[in-house]
Amino acid sequence: MSVTEDPTATKQKMVEPLQLVYNEDEKLVLNPEALKVLRSIEDPMLVVAVVGAARTGKSYLMNCLAGGKKGFSVDSTIQSHTKGIWMWCQPLPQRPNEVLLLLDTEGLGDPEKGDIDNDHFIYSLAILLSSILIYNGQRNIDQQSLQDLHFVTELSKRIQMRSQPDVSNSWDFIRFFPEFVWLIRDFTLKLKIDGKAVTPNEYLEHRLKLKDGEKQDKEYNELRRCIRNNFPSRCCFVFPFPTTNDVEQLQELEDKDLNMDFVNERQSLINYIHTHNKVKRVGGQLVTGRRFAELTKSYVDMMANGVLPCVENSVAKLVEVENQAAADEALKFYNDEMKKISESGCLTMRKLVEYYNTKSIEAFNIFQKRCMNDDSGKHIEQLQEKMSSTYKSLMVEMKTKSQDECETLLKKVMSSIKENLTSKHYQRPGGFQELKKDLDKAIKEYEEKTKNLMEGCAVLSHFLEKEKHHFDHVQEIDSMLTEEQMRISAVEENLLNLKREIQKMEQERKASEEHRNKEIMDQIRKRFEDGKMCSMEELKEAMKHMMSEMEKYQDEGRKEDAERARQRYKYLKKKYEEASESSFVKFIRRLLRLFQSW
Asked: Taking the complete model, does pTM exceed 0.85, yes or no?
């Protein structure tokens, strides 16, 4: 498999398909090379999977969606050609920030395989991974074609939505299942019902109506219920015979050699897929190539270990992996940036705080770009604690270094004053005036030399406090001082100014950190709101669908089915209410308390 760089985007373009899942010793196994390719893709993905009977042209269809005649292996012999699941990533010209991921699955009912469980594993996986599922059928929608979809009735036995399932476990399918597209190949019937022309979508809905109550209709109805109840969105495309020529050469034929109705319907399908907004999401959050790889690995590992693939557990694991990686990436950036500033030499407290706050915000930006919504806020808290620890350690280190440097400078500029104090040179008439003049000069020289050192004020303030009694003693014995001069200390004004400067810096530090916390909180709030909004929209769509199905069942006179649809609607509505403003407020309040403690 070769990969080339797309010059118009940062994502990679696969020049040919690659096997994603294959069978080994009757178990599904992932191709590490395919996972590597997926993990390199940072863009959201529109995931289209095709399922259907063996040798019905699924691979040809996927090549058309990829925009070419070749790609997925196509064979016209009686032997099934596609094994496992193959994938092909292609850019979407109409949406440059998204990727089209095509999944071609091996055919249902392959007599050479003879393993019905393998079919169920493959198609359960296709449903879990796709955002659009295409069922590639033939001729028309009849009982036989519906029976080919019998795996749909097994979904509740093959897929688990929550780690602790209950009677409503399958009721959540509608929230996570893909859009269902029924594609009918070699369609020869007229699209009419009771003499009235209908659309392909109306034809599909008509064929999904239930029959009244004979025992033999139980399987008939169950298949239809499963499709109607589990797939929130459905549509249909009907393809006539592509050509009167040898269809074995279909892959090689030009459009001019094909039935124009076939070409037009094929283009309608391509346009539908390429312009569709059904990007893959889990829990309301976009699935990138990297996230898709983690989900696929999680599902396949469960199946290989004989465990039902659980959506809730897989999403929770994905959130943990993504958020830990996001926190690690943000922390590395922050530590590298703080290391640079620590090696830069002289630095004032004001500049260090400003730098710390700026880099904290940038680090959280990095975290927010990659993370997934997590109501616990665990990784946000861990990231802040580690950044704060790094900052405090750096602060101690730089303060110690600055203090040593300032004390050395202070000792030098104050050396002559200390000598004069020791020798009692100032203890004479006029000595205080001389001391004050020398002290003012030394302080001015010191402040000039330490203006870029963070401990300049603190070291000087400590020195003046410590030596104040010596200066006051000189003042007391100077008999030439007036009464007014006796009331003025040699260092009090300097001490007062230093304390004001230190207090000002502390106020600036607090204001700067409050601004930083607000900016970070705004980031988190927006990200949470965006993710929650998408999740709420998914629930609203599911509620809308169940209401529509309830009304259809009522129109069909199916009271029991209408009541079941109403119960599912109530269940989804409750989920919607639980996921609404209250949980958001609770999450934000917890984060506010967290930030206030920092």
From this structure: no
